């Protein structure tokens, strides 16, 4: 797959699309898809992955970007060529800086299936060959606060130990009422529905839906029955995003 610079975003939410990675490994991909074929600078792709018991991804290479994995259910065993091993469970996060090259594997822990969210963040041109690196955070390390209309956990951003080479805000938001998300000026990003249902800027929004945001105007999120979503924004690099399978050139 090849993805280049962000094109015009759709006017409202679009449904994520199913992707089959192999036997027992599937995902709901927010972008790039047939419905929204572009990446969203600085983000290469975003998806919710599902791994069945005894399936997963054996050791494979990556380079040129950063990976943030955030677990929703179950646990995922990580091992990499840096010698790191870790199991991330519900509410925990891992960050891999692939840089000039790293190999890693991902398998469900304890013989049970798992699912979570995975975000690929492009590295700017001058940092494509940085040394690979790894970082993780327990659920207790990620700050959670009650805000008007929502409970918000910061996966990446102020107060989180997860740090990237690109300025990014990544929020896990449980909306019960009305919540307003303000994207920093000049940044771009998206909302993705994890569970429940509600509205985004007056349009129906639910599990597996994505709403790209490419301007700084406030985004209004409402739900009377409960909606869980992630809100992700970052400062664009203004450089083409060229994905070649597991590499971002």
Q: Helices and strands in order, then pairings?
A:
Layout: E1 14-15, E2 17-22, E3 25-31, E4 43-51, E5 57-62, E6 65-73, E7 75-80, E8 85-89, E9 93-97, E10 102-108, E11 114-122, E12 133-137, E13 144-147, E14 150-156, E15 168-181, E16 188-200, E17 203-206, E18 209-213, E19 219-234, E20 243-244, E21 247-248
Antiparallel strand pairs: 1-18, 2-3, 3-4, 4-11, 5-10, 6-9, 6-11, 7-8, 7-10, 9-12, 13-14, 14-15, 15-19, 16-17, 16-18, 16-19, 20-21
What's the helix count? 0
Residue fraction in strands? over 45%
Shape descriptor: globular
Largest sheet: number of strands, sense, barrel closure: 8 strands, antiparallel
Description of the molecule:
This protein is an all-beta fold and 249 residues long. Helix content is 0%, strand content 57%. It is globular. It has no helices and 21 strands.
Which features characterize this protein?
mainly beta; seven-stranded antiparallel beta sheet; 0% helix; 57% strand
Question: What is this entry, summarized?
Answer:
The chain has 249 residues and is mostly beta strands. The protein has no helices and 21 strands. Strands 1, 13, 14, 15, 16, 17, 18 and 19 form an eight-stranded antiparallel beta sheet that branches. A seven-stranded antiparallel beta sheet has the order 2-3-4-11-6-9-12, with no helix packed on it.
